[in-house]
# Entry
Amino acid sequence: MHALSLGTWWIHVTSVLEWIVAIAAVQAYGQRRREGGWRWLALAMLPALGSAMAACTWHLFDNPEELRGLVVFQAGLTTLGNGTLALAGWNLLRQQRRLDAASQAAARSDEP
# Structure
């Protein structure tokens, strides 16, 4: 644990905890709104959480050469996470546009 200062560890650990809370909040928000796209967003956040945990694990063991594969694994999870988050965001946008179109159609059908 000598590779990082206490302050840097604090930031690493609280960032991981914050991301876990964010995943739970997104999931709860989606359940409250009854919109499945938010559940997909919460799931899309998991690779980034795994990436953060891989980085913390590597640092925990003082960045040994034997665990260099964790760095590659972390990079892969970061790439995967960026892609899944982009897809989940696109899915939310698509769903919102569909809801807006349905709402506008309903409003037009109510006009005299």
